[in-house]
Design a protein that fits this description.
It is a single chain. By secondary structure, this protein is an alpha/beta fold. The chain has 5 helices and 10 strands. The chain has an 8-stranded mixed sheet. Strands 2-8 form a two-stranded antiparallel sheet. The chain starts with a strand and ends with a strand. The mean pLDDT is 94.
Length: 194
């Protein structure tokens, strides 16, 4: 069984972006130490178009071979003219309104998202599945999330887009580890208690 990992950046107060979902304020924490960590531990989470400038284009996928993102997250790339932001992974975008796919490498999942995710998790072999965002998608898939990797940056939004949107459905995760960085960021890893 493959794991679904919600790998997400957030503020100290648990927001993944401002009220419109813009998380660009967190980009200032991508210093050399932190980028080295991402390239070493999670190279596949770096978008394809950023891999060459970051010196990561030669790195192999370590943890994930598939990415799932919501339309809002995907729109960030589309606005820049990038139709396949994670071309080094199998790409799925959850959207009921985006049809047809703007790229043959990107599969749009319009119906039965939960069934599609369960089928991906049940595939034999392969690496894990990277849940890229966003908030509504994470809320819809909360029951299927096996692991959380939360990159917390030392800023406070005060209000914004939460890590999980949707109704209250309490789930418990166990802390596996914490990594701290000189820029004040920390990365916490949790495994779902089942």
């Amino acid at each position: 069984m493959r794991k679904l990992t919600y790998f997400i950046a957030c503020s100290l107060d648990g927001f993944i972006g401002d009220e419109s979902g813009d998380g660009s304020a967190m980009l200032r924490f991508l210093d050399e130490e932190y980028l080295d960590f991402l390239k070493t531990e999670f190279p596949e989470t770096l978008p394809t178009h950023a891999r060459t400038p970051l010196g990561a284009d030669h790195l192999e996928n370590k943890r994930f071979d598939t990415v799932i993102q919501g339309r809002g997250s995907y729109e960030v790339a589309l606005k820049e003219g990038i139709t396949s932001p994670y071309a080094h992974l199998r790409e799925y975008v959850a959207s009921r309104t985006l049809d047809p796919s703007p790229d043959p490498h990107v599969e749009i999942v319009a119906d039965d998202l939960l069934g599609r995710v369960r089928a991906l998790k049940a595939e034999e072999g392969g690496l894990g599945i990277y849940l890229c965002g966003g908030s509504r998608l994470a809320g819809e898939l909360l029951e299927e999330i096996d692991e959380l990797v939360i990159k917390t940056y030392p800023i406070v939004y005060g209000t914004g887009m939460p890590m999980f949107a949707g109704g209250l459905d309490i789930k418990e995760f166990g802390l596996d580890g914490v990594r701290t960085f000189g820029n004040g960021a920390l990365v916490r890893t949790y495994t779902r208690k089942r």
